[in-house]
Amino acid sequence: MHALAFFFAASCSLLATLPFTEPSKTPSSFTIDLIHHDSPLSPFYNSSMTRSQLIRNAAMRSISRANQLSLSLSHSLNQLKESSPEPIIIPNNGNYLMRIYIGTPSVERLAIADTGSDLTWVQCSPCDNTKCFAQNTPLYDPLNSSTFTLLPCDSQPCTQLPYSQYVCSDYGDCIYAYTYGDNSYSYGGLSSDSIRFDATAATPTIPKFVFGCGFQNKFTADKSGKTTGIVGLGAGPLSLVSQLGDEIGHKFSYCLLPFSSNSNSKLKFGEAAIVQGNGVVSTPLIIKPDLPFYYLNLEGITVGAKTVKTGQTDGNIIIDSGSTLTYLEESFYNEFVSLVKETVAVEEDQYIPYPFDFCFTYKEGMSTPPDVVFHFTGGDVVLKPMNTLVLIEDNLICSTVVPSHFDGIAIFGNLGQIDFHVGYDIQGGKVSFAPTDCSLN
């Protein structure tokens, strides 16, 4: 069969502006669940772990994420300068997961939802344990789907991949090759198939969704077997958001709950993603060439009555749902934390658990820490103490804002975004924030 021959031929050859997706009767808006890695609703949930342990684990994943973003950005810039291969964002075992249903008949996959990735991919058959990572569900078998198609090298989606990330098989099929800075990778056939986001008809079916059918894959950071790939929500032309395009008005949003919540956070598309109501502020969305990340420009931070400024205007911080902590460029962070110490008037604790940087012990009668205002260009986002401080253990409170030790990387992480409706208007070029009780959305 042509498809099987392709897989074996492509396996050898790997060693050597919108896609054509046609959503069928896609509604103008729909909502799907985002499952936090550590929530009671997650397959990763460990009921024997304390809240402090869960927070520490999430923070450690955040360190890995920042390192991965730094490597990805560094290699991407090198690719622009030297035409070297471009890694995209490195997968870890994810902070938010989502279920997708691929093929006809459809099969359920649990994948990492990633606003810093473009291509969606899953593991495909044929693939043995020496070429794919273990997963606790059967591999997606394209020969069992009546709607699966391999895309040729001259197809528009294939040409939208960076030239260093695809080759042509002997049969003219498009073979993608995504490598990541932690030695993770996915190689396979750029394909199209039917996809939906719910086991019922509550969400739309996209009949020709472009994705990667991976037959050589490695997840360095996830040995659990519970996740099977990535759903790319980033700025690249092959991301889910870009493929839905006009059908959702180029808009998506999320409303993130604390991960201890017994409900799932929500990812919204189309009209439902419009942020409105009291307290809405907006800031320009900055997308940089050949990078899948969403950037904002942070002008300064206010704590109490005093402000420190970045002095930058060109998009200096990535807004990222996959990072737990918020990272600031080191010299700016030092100004910020000095201001926190001065304003809160607390003594820094000598015991600071990694990966936090500033902690103090709560004492009875201590005044409530002030709000922290992030001054983005055109909009001030007021963060409550729950966004910027976290109780670790035995009255030890740590800042969720930490210094970035990675060159060129600052990240606005998901703890800072909890209980905000965060909307991305790609065509309008803005990100909007509205303080919201996300348990009601």
UniProtKB/TrEMBL annotation:
Q: Which Pfam family, an example, fits this chain?
A: TAXi_N
Q: Give the principal location in a single coarse category.
A: secreted
The Peptidase A1 domain, residue ranges = 96-434
Matches recorded under InterPro entries:
Aspartic_peptidase_AS, Pepsin-like_plant, PEPTIDASE_A1, Peptidase_aspartic_dom_sf, Plant_Aspart_Prot_A1, TAXi_C, TAXi_N
In which compartments does the protein localize? Secreted
One GO term in the molecular function aspect is: aspartic-type endopeptidase activity
Query: What processes in GO biological process is this protein linked to?
Result: proteolysis
Q: Which GO terms describe its cellular component?
A: extracellular region
Keywords (alphabetical) are: Aspartyl protease, Glycoprotein, Hydrolase, Protease, Secreted, Signal
Signal peptide as annotated in the record: 1-23
Q: Spell out the family assignment given in the record's similarity comment.
A: Belongs to the peptidase A1 family.
Q: Which PANTHER family does the entry mention?
A: ASPARTIC PROTEINASE CDR1-LIKE, OS07G0603500 PROTEIN-RELATED
Name the record gives this protein: Aspartic peptidase
Q: Which organism is it from?
A: Lotus japonicus (Lotus corniculatus var. japonicus)
